[in-house]
Write a structure and sequence with these properties.
The chain has 15 helices and 13 strands. By secondary structure, it is an alpha/beta fold. It has two domains: about 210 residues, Rossmann fold (3-Layer(aba) Sandwich); about 70 residues, formyl-coa transferase, domain 3. A six-stranded parallel β-sheet has the order 5-2-1-6-7-8, with helices on both faces. A three-stranded antiparallel β-sheet has the order 9-10-11, covered by helices on one side. A hairpin with a 2-residue loop joins strand 3 and strand 4. Helix 1 crosses helix 7. The longest helix has 24 residues. This is CoA transferase. It comes from Altererythrobacter arenosus. InterPro entries: CoA-transferase_III, CoA-Trfase_fam_III, CoA-Trfase_III_dom3_sf, CoA-Trfase_III_dom_1_sf. One of its GO terms (molecular function) is transferase activity.
């Protein structure tokens, strides 16, 4: 019995933010009914693939949709709409990720759904929200990050923005939507009333810049990476290349880390520079670049083993998933029918978890 056992979710979302949100609910015991078009969620055909329950399936789809059931509904047909209304009547949560206005045209906007199930918790996930000048502007993760200012500091040493390595706007929206839905369910227990949630990827990203964009938030100039401690302006929060063309990072700006490392390297004279404002540590950064270029990544890992410094090698995903820490924490789990899953980050003490079955696309044809 998971923490959300007894909660039924009707999930009309595809790709990433919505499915990420609802898989976290399914992992905790919620009954999630994934409503799909006849072709299925496009993530079903996204490579690479692995064998789950005896069939080749997308690793992406499996990891974001395990433990759900699937129903194919044609929401433009009367039969499909009737079947969805039946699902809504027994649901606690309704989640959709279409462009603003689509659900109203289909007859399943919040007012219509609430007429069927008055205490429903209804969550709409979109790029920019249901209202405003950008509401109908098409965008996936990177475009949202660009318009929210984040891509401007996702840049290289020459200041050119690069494609981000993590879909932060997607994931922020999924986590924000999950939090809002759970809050609404708690509130419903107290008041008996449901709620409507307008969750935008753009809105969800903004709080993530409070520690770096303070000057802009306060009405001043935009921060630049090379003058920010957390974005490349500090010697002890920086990426360095090693002699074998790989990389390591220093990931702790506290002065005692600088003291420990610079003493071990025989450059105590540079310790005061580590305490200077970001953007004024050029001499220190230059020394560290020269130093790290003298040994391979593996040699530096060995060298740092007995030193109290926030240091890490930059690993690729294969190396990261092969790290002993993954096994020790049980973070990569094989399903009963095969195929590997990333374990949920929320796991409760004393409760066992195993990945639910990956849903087959409903073979009954669109309703």
């Amino acid at each position: 019995m998971g923490k959300l056992s007894g909660i039924r979710v009707v999930d009309l979302t595809q790709f990433l933010p919505g499915p990420m949100m609802t898989v976290m609910m399914a992992d905790q015991g919620a009954e999630v009914i994934k409503v799909e078009p006849a072709a299925g969620d496009p993530a079903r055909v996204q490579a690479p693939f692995d064998t789950y329950d005896g069939a080749e399936q997308s690793v992406w789809f499996a990891n974001l949709n395990r433990g759900k059931s699937s129903q194919v509904l044609d929401l433009k047909s009367e039969q499909g709409k009737a079947r969805l209304r039946d699902l809504v009547a027994g649901a606690d949560v309704f989640v959709e990720g279409f462009r603003p206005g689509v659900m109203k045209r289909l007859g399943f906007d919040y007012d219509s759904v609430r007429a069927i199930k008055p205490d429903i918790v209804y969550c709409s996930i979109s790029a920019f929200g249901q209202e405003g000048a950008l509401a109908h502007h098409p965008a996936h993760d990177m475009a949202v990050q660009a318009l929210a200012g984040f891509l401007s500091v996702n840049d290289g040493p020459d200041g050119t923005p690069v494609v981000p390595g993590a879909p932060s706007a997607d994931m922020a929206a999924g986590l924000t939507a999950l939090s809002a839905v759970l809050m609404a369910l708690v509130g419903r227990e107290r008041t008996g009333e449901g709620a409507y949630i307008d969750c935008a990827m753009f809105d969800s990203m903004l709080p993530w810049c409070a520690h770096t964009a303070g000057s802009a938030i306060a009405g001043g100039k935009s921060p630049k990476s090379q003058s920010q401690r957390s974005l490349g302006g500090a010697g002890f929060y920086q990426v360095y290349e090693t002699s074998d063309g790989k990389h390591v990072v220093l990931g702790g700006r506290e002065l005692h880390f600088a003291r420990n490392l610079l003493t071990a390297l025989g450059r105590e004279d540079l310790i005061p520079i580590a305490d200077q404002p970001a953007g004024e540590q050029g001499e220190l950064i230059a020394f560290l670049r020269e130093s790290f270029a003298t040994k391979s990544r593996a040699e530096w890992v060995d060298w740092f083993a007995d030193k109290d410094v926030a240091f890490s090698p930059v690993l690729d995903f294969r190396e990261a998933f092969d790290e002993p820490h993954i096994g020790e924490r049980g973070l990569l789990v094989e399903g009963a029918g095969g195929g590997r899953h990333i374990a949920p980050p929320i796991r409760f003490a004393g409760e066992d978890w195993s990945p639910g079955k990956v849903p087959e696309l409903d073979s009954g044809g669109p309703g």
